[in-house]
Write a structure and sequence with these properties.
The complex is a heterodimer of chains A (about 130) and B (about 160). With about 130 residues, chain A is mainly α. Chain A has one domain (about 5-100). Chain A is built from four helices and no strands. By secondary structure, chain B is mainly alpha-helical. Classes of the chains: A mainly alpha (about 130), B mainly alpha (about 160). Chain A: It holds the Pfam family PhaG_MnhG_YufB.
Chain lengths: ~130, ~160
């Protein structure tokens, strides 16, 4: 017979490991993806779930230890889910403004990335990475 | 009698503030509820000039359903993005997508843009000044029309229903 605490320990360990894995993949994506816009995908998604998992584990743990529902972790999650998209959006917006180099496979026939006449082209042909 | 609009300009914000206060205090005792309610009334009144006019929430229970849908999608999004990142061949077809907005109010557009950033393979990049088009960057897109239709169906329509605008 497996006790309640053993099961909870397993659940908490699972969330901690899952959180760690997601956070790692997110940062790995930062290193591996080719251009700025693609790199943005890693931290904006993977890290939110990574931190989310760790917080779920923390909430379970402290609820168990203190014997009462511990919900402060929820607050961190809520704030994170509100702020992560905003910072990602601001970063992307300024990247678009500077017309940062895109991966050559990117379909980028949008108004914002059309070349103006007096644009400098620091990034080679059509603003694509070589 | 003073009209409700005057002393409670943003009921949603007030409710959120009260909930935040109680969560931070970790208690639901009468004193904390009173103090929280006072803050929830005073803060919106003081910061009112700072806010844009907020649309009324017509169907709050649909918002709850929407939140759970987005949470589910966040998990799927993470698995998909993880798979893309770890794929050794690194086959990806990133694209910028121009998404024609049906929503007009600022708050729903903000929620939509945030949902897009948090969910499968898309980041909202720019809201054009006329507020009609949202530029989205997709990590891996087969078909642009497909992605647009998907976002319209899953997020924008429900939001439109929730805020009825």
């Amino acid at each position: 017979m497996i006790g309640f605490y053993t099961v909870m320990e397993g659940v908490i360990a699972f969330f901690l490991i899952a959180g760690g894995v997601f956070a790692f993949i997110g940062s790995f994506g930062l290193a591996r993806l080719k251009d700025f816009f693609m790199r943005l995908h890693g931290p904006s998604k993977t890290s939110t779930l990574g931190v989310g998992c760790v917080l779920i584990a923390s909430m379970c743990y402290f609820s168990l230890i203190e014997g009462s529902l511990s919900l402060q972790g929820m607050l961190i999650t809520i704030f994170l889910f509100i702020t992560a998209p905003v910072s990602a959006h601001l970063l992307a917006k300024s990247a678009l403004h500077y017309k940062l180099a895109r991966d050559p496979r990117t379909l980028d026939d949008i108004e914002e990335l059309k070349d103006g006449e007096d644009d400098e082209k620091p990034n080679g042909e059509n603003g694509h990475l070589p | 009698m003073i009209p409700t609009q005057r002393w409670l300009p943003m009921p949603l914000l007030s409710l959120l503030l009260l909930a935040m206060w109680l969560l931070l205090q970790q208690s639901v005792s009468l004193g904390q509820i009173l103090l929280g309610s006072l803050l929830a009334l005073v803060i919106p009144l003081i910061t009112q000039p700072f806010w844009e006019r907020q649309p009324m929430l017509k169907h709050p229970w649909l918002l709850v359903r929407y939140i759970f849908r987005v949470l589910g999608d966040i998990i799927i999004a993470n698995l998909q993005v993880s798979k893309l990142i770890l794929d050794p061949r690194g086959r990806m077809s990133p694209a910028f997508i121009e998404y024609p907005l049906e929503l007009t109010e600022m708050l729903p557009i903000t929620i939509l843009a945030s949902s897009i950033t948090l969910t499968p393979g898309t980041v909202s990049v720019n809201l054009r000044k006329d507020r009609r088009t949202l530029v989205i960057h997709a990590l891996n897109t087969g078909d642009r029309e497909d992605t647009i239709a998907q976002i319209r169906e899953r997020y924008e329509r429900p939001l439109k229903e929730i805020f009825e605008c």
